[in-house]
């Protein structure tokens, strides 16, 4: 894994790669490569022992030409200004790829949540929500979960916002618990769109999903659900999964639900008794499987690892898991990479459904959510493969960016942003 590749530069390179195929002037394009604004703030929070600890936190609002800024909030020690800028940009092009009416944003706090108590995390989150309050709202900027955040943190943000504003505004944040205005199906949505993308990819490439072997790096919200649904709904053989403790391998196929129970009980995949062996994350990424799903963090596959990837197909569940150099290597090696801005877009798509339900105060069944999600992802997949076939682009990522950039540029143009 390459920690020294700047994800914001990776995003800009991805946009530049597509620019040659898009009818947008270079000055207009330059605007689409930078965030509109970035909040950097210091949270001073009381710890359980009465001491005060300070945390750096960010929110980047990248582009609002297609609608309110939208995107998750990450709690991780490696959160940085450039990471948040990159993640907010990927949100812009993701929302455009699946054609939902949002711009892109992303936030984060530099924190390892495992080192803090529940009450400390609540105070950190409420302090962050206090700083976000002037920026967010159902028509301004709508946060959601990302790495190490979930329903609990979203409920705290909603409550803080509503208390300060003296209102009820559940559409200020998505990914809430259903009892606090969350949508059925949101927890599973990211993994579900990864599964749907994998299903479409197998069909498109004329491969059999039920005979495929699969390895998944990262076993959180995105990875564990993707692994389970690919096992249960596509009948594929998930032979390896990993988390930060390492990878577990079972050539006959893992019982994904059982592995998840083990992680729930022990906090780690390592030590899972039904695995035939334990591997490193790097060994998982270079395993000879039909489908590889990176579902952890950005830069997981760099140029050097890309040369040793043995999978035929990669479906990106994580945001930015390949460095641009790795992308080039995999394109040259004919490994079919289906990009994050399509494959993991289920999360933000069901967040959009949650926001619609919050605004209407009328809630959908899980079946309706899943059916609408399937429609959105399959239509976006078809648009992506049509663009790939009709243009001279080198890979599926560039095809996705061509359509997404055109959509964002059209909205900006129609609004008169470009003179
Ligand atoms: N949540 C969502 O709705 C969406 C998430 N994403 C993206 O999906 C990715 C994962 O997010 P999400 O699942 O929500 O996050 P979670 O916090 O739920 O899970 C992250 C997982 O990645 C693992 N991990 C972290 N570092 C490493 C490493 N170096 N090697 C192997 N595994 C590692 C973690 O291990 P451990 O359990 O040991 O900590 C954990 O299993 C991110 O890129 C995120 O931006 C994209 C769209 C929506
Ligand atoms: O659900 C959302 O609004 C955003 C999820 C997210 O952060 C992402 O897609 O990377």
Automatic annotation (TrEMBL):
This is Glutamate dehydrogenase. NAD(+) binds at residues 190, 221. Keywords: NAD, Nucleotide-binding, Oxidoreductase. Residues 250-275 are annotated as: Disordered. The active site is at residue 106. The record marks 146 as: Important for catalysis. Substrate binds at residues 70, 94, 351. Residues 183-416 form the Glutamate/phenylalanine/leucine/valine/L-tryptophan dehydrogenase C-terminal domain. GO terms for molecular function: glutamate dehydrogenase (NAD+) activity; nucleotide binding. The lineage of its organism: Archaea, Methanobacteriati, Methanobacteriota, Stenosarchaea group, Halobacteria. GO terms for biological process: L-glutamate catabolic process. CDD domains: NAD_bind_1_Glu_DH.
């Amino acid at each position: 894994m390459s920690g020294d590749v700047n994800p914001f530069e990776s995003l800009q390179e991805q946009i530049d790669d597509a620019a040659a195929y898009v009818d947008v002037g270079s000055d207009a394009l330059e605007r689409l490569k930078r965030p509109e604004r970035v909040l950097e703030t210091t949270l001073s929070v009381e710890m359980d022992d009465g001491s005060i600890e300070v945390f750096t936190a960010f929110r980047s609002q990248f582009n609002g030409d297609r609608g309110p800024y939208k995107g998750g909030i990450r709690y991780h020690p490696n959160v940085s200004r450039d990471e948040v800028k990159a993640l907010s940009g990927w949100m812009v092009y993701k929302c455009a790829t699946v054609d939902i009416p949002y711009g892109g944003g992303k936030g984060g706090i530099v924190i390892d949540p495992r080192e803090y108590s529940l009450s400390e995390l609540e105070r950190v989150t409420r302090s962050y929500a206090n700083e976000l309050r002037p920026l967010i709202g159902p028509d301004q900027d709508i946060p959601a979960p990302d790495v190490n955040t979930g329903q609990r943190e979203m409920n705290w943000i909603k409550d803080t916002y509503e208390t300060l504003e003296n209102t009820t505004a559940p559409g200020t944040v998505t990914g809430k618990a259903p009892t606090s205005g969350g949508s059925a199906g949101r927890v599973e949505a990211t993994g579900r769109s990864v599964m749907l993308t994998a299903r479409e990819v197998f069909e498109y490439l004329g491969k059999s999903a039920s005979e495929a072997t699969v390895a998944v790096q990262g076993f959180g919200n995105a990875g564990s659900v993707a692994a389970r649904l690919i096992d249960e709904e596509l009948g594929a053989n998930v032979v390896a999964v990993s988390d930060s403790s390492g990878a577990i391998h079972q050539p006959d196929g893992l019982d994904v639900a059982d592995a998840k129970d083990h992680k729930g009980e022990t906090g780690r995949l390592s030590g899972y008794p039904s695995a035939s062996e334990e591997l490193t994350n790097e060994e998982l990424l270079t395993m000879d499987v039909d489908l590889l799903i990176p579902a952890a963090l950005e830069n997981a596959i760099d140029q050097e690892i890309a040369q040793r990837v043995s999978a035929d197909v990669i479906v990106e569940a994580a945001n930015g898991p390949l460095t641009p150099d790795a992308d080039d290597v995999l394109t040259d090696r004919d490994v079919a990479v289906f990009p994050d801005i399509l494959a993991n877009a289920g999360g933000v798509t069901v967040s959009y459904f949650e926001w619609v339900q919050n605004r209407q105060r009328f809630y959908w069944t899980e079946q309706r959510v899943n059916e609408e999600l399937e429609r959105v992802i399959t239509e976006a997949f078809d648009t992506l493969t049509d663009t790939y076939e009709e243009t001279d682009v080198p890979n599926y990522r560039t095809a996705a960016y061509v359509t997404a950039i055109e959509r964002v540029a059209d909205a900006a143009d129609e609004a008169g942003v470009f003179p």
